[in-house]
Amino acid sequence: MNPHDAADFDPENPLSKPDVPEDVQEAVRTLLRWAGDDPSREGLIDTPKRVGRAWLEYCRGNQEDPAIHLSRIFEEVGGYEEIVLLKDIPFQSHCEHHMAPITGKAHIAYLPDQKVVGISKLARVLHGYANRLQVQERLTAEVAECIWNNLEPRGVAVVIEAEHGCMTGRGVKVHEVEMLTSRMMGCFLDDAASRKEVLGLMGY
Q: Is 75 in contact with 113 (CB distance < 8 Å)?
């Protein structure tokens, strides 16, 4: 441990995990009681803190603007004028209706005009929006519009495939069913040949 941090060290919280306010913990206890369990039993004593910290992490995208990941651009692309595609990007989100997991993968493509970014930044944009309470349709649109507005490309295509916990774990309890959403902008929307090309590269 850095000696300069000694004054801040808390022996009851050696890993410096975020504090969870009492009202948040009580909300979790209330939910546990509502579900028919006893929040005072041994296995659930620390659950309210764990749940509070988990949701802080699940929704960390609320604390950032995903566009920040597109601020470092490159204009020297050696004359490259073809599609840039990042396929099969895994992600996890939570639906805003039941707060159940959304698990899937995304394909993100753009046709550069004069600006490109490091490919990892496309995944960071996706995760920035996914780490919020979401609906898949909005997530798809937000990722596409962020790339469109910040890179000013000739086209953007985003396709997301995901399984929804609100269908698999409750309600109809249907498994192995994926929802597919897409958002096309620019040449991928206006030109059928360009749209066919990008969808073919994505595997559709």
A: no
| Chain mean pLDDT for the chain | 92
Instruction: Check: CB of residue 183 under 8 Å from CB of residue 106.
Output: no
Encoded tokens for 42: 């041994």
DSSP string spanning 85-141? EEEEEEEEEEETTT--EEEEEEEEEEE-SS-B--HHHHHHHHHHHHSSEE-HHHHHH
The span from the CA of 156 to the CA of 110, in Å, is 4
Residues 66/146, Cβ–Cβ less than 8 Å: yes
For helices 119-130 and 136-151, the axis angle rounded to 10 degrees is: 140
* N- to C-terminal Cα separation, the chain: 52
Say what the pTM is: 0.89
Lowest mean pLDDT among 3-7, 26-30, 87-91: 3-7
Strand arrangement, sheet containing 179-186? 133-134, 84-95, 101-111, 155-164, 179-186
pLDDT tens sequence across 161-191: 999 998 888 877 888 889 999 999 999 999 9
Q: How confident is the model at residue 66 (pLDDT cuts 50, 70, 90)?
A: very high
Look at residue 186 and give its three-state secondary structure: strand
Instruction: State how far the alpha carbon of 200 is from the alpha carbons of 66, 113, 197, in Å.
Output: 28, 21, 5
Structure tokens at 176: 């192995």
